[in-house]
Specification:
2 domains; 6-stranded mixed beta sheet; alpha/beta; AAA+_ATPase; globular
Length: about 280
Amino acid sequence: MPEYILEAENLEFSYMDGTTAIRNLSLKLEKGKKYAVVGNNGAGKSTLFLHFNGVHRPAKGNIKYKGEVVNYSHKRLKELRKNVGVVFQDPDNQLFSASVYQDISFGPVNLGWPEEKIRAKVEQALKRTGTWDFKDKPTHFLSHGQKKRVAIAGILAMEPEVIFLDEPTAGLDPFYCTEMMQLLDDFNQMGATLILSSHDLNEVYAWADYIFVMNSGEIIAEGLPEEIFRNAQVLKTANLGKPWVLEVFDELVKNKALKEQTSVPRKKDQLLDLFSQFQVI
């Protein structure tokens, strides 16, 4: 049976102004997988993420971590947030220390780790995220892309088992988008479970193992990327488009220029590899 590291059961949540953000939402996250949550603005993606590390507490329903219902005592929340990290869309909401090194060390210091362990984990996070060269730089002098990497390093230094990332490539140029997604792949290969939200559906389609679609605070569909993005009704309801790799592939198959494949291409290079099958007319 799959090992679920996080679960949401029948969540309900509304903000103080009465806005209902989450409606009877349930999902399960399997350990070690890469997930994406997609949907238009206001669908509830960010609100959902903040439930999984205890920032928001559901009005109804439960969050489970490793099969146990989350306890909202200070001690248990501290433990949960050590294991479940959230990287915000805007890194300025996450960075507040005078220097990069101080910001990344904040979490480990707050966990009460010995100084030697803190130094080792911070240096490791700096090197993994490519932020070592500006570790002593004030955070407010960093570029947007550098700030994104520092925010991730601050979470990584605490060695979480799960990382939620809200629009991790928003505002980045194509080069740094590629770098960021490779960095997330590296974390996953080291055993971390990753969940991201993104409006870049081409990126999501190429990267995720499994996708949840949100609309008006609900999960309206879930499945493999090629299943989700071939479901015209789901795409219409959630105001989503079809990733171009899948759109091109399906059109070529429809027009008999390519044969239907057992494995549907997810990335550009995979699609290009299939062009050798073109039928000459």
